[in-house]
Amino acid sequence: MNHTPRFRTVVGRTVLVLSLGAVATGCGGPDGHPLSGKPYDAADQVSLNTPKGDTKANPDKPLEVVAKGGEGRITDVSVTDAAGHHLAGELAADGARWRSTVPMAAGARYTVKVATEDEDGAPGSRTLTFGTTPVKQRNLTVAFGPKAGRYGVGQPVTAELSAPVKDKDARAVVERGLKVRSSPAVEGSWYWVDDKKLHFRPRDYWPNDATVNVTSTLDGIRVGDKLYGGPSKALKITTGDRIEAVADAGTHHMTVTRNGKAVKTVPVTTGKPGFSTRNGIKVVLAKERFVRMTGTSVGIAAGSSESYDLPVHFATRVTWSGEYVHAAPWSVGSQGSANVSHGCVGMSTENAEWFFDTVREGDIVKVVNSEGDDMDPFGNGFGDWNLDWNKWRQGSALIGGAGIREGTGPVEAARLRPQV
What we know:
Immunoglobulin-like, 5-stranded mixed β-sheet, 4 helices, 34% strand
């Protein structure tokens, strides 16, 4: 029998608009039932709003797939580029039209697969391809961090843009194009530290033994006026055990846990009055077996009563301004009873070596009950976890105020300064 499909109202699903070809005819399967046969060719039932022939489509205009003549309905649309990236869109509740909700890429080739249904519920299908016009310059690239490798569960993902993006709508385009996928899956969000840098973190720490893949789909996408995304290198990192160290400046002890279970408590000393250690959550930035620490590097005048010049071993860095967890054999008599350092967490050489060998970049070091300032969320290492989840989400252009923060530059410039 001839199939002249008719479209009915249907619950909407994501689909794409394209021009399709010939008249669809078909019969039922071996049992004669219309739903048991091969999908009919829906060429005459749907159309795409792209130019005819070899003319390229304008990537700045939404893509539409339309059910022609009211004869049937669209049930699904899938649009992918050559790299397998899907173009998001929305299908009208009556199945009459699908429209893309994100920009298409310039200079790309898309494949559109449209599924339809007639009044008897018999399925139809049509596949089409088209290209978009290229642009002369793709001038926005993304450098992801940290470098590929294995990290602690507190390690944020960073994205450094090659050009500033200030407009909120443009920032939203950027965020939609930066994909972070983890296994096990987590809830997470980007935060705009400034107009060129974003951080991504989960609501809670990453799961232990997780795999995190970070990619950009901005290549060819119009971000703003004369600003188009370019190719960016993907990133893959993994996490190890959940290692957390809590240094209590009040009790002068540090407890280290692995996956929630305490494995060691050691006596420590933290910053004395005037040099109190920062409170809050910090992330291990680097490990250095030997560092020469001098008072002049942190603004202490040479020859003053606070001046120092010391060889330091097993130094685990937690801020760019110079806070470490390190061996301090000169203060063993005060460890466990008094705070005598210039801001670092000091411990015996034996304990410092154990700590150095136990932690990795991305592990958590938290300081509590200190008289020092709170750890800044940005600019002096990774203080990201000191923002609660609601405040963090406000740093997203898709959710809140895009996180514009001033004054992080001077702290960033202070990196590599050690203090004891």
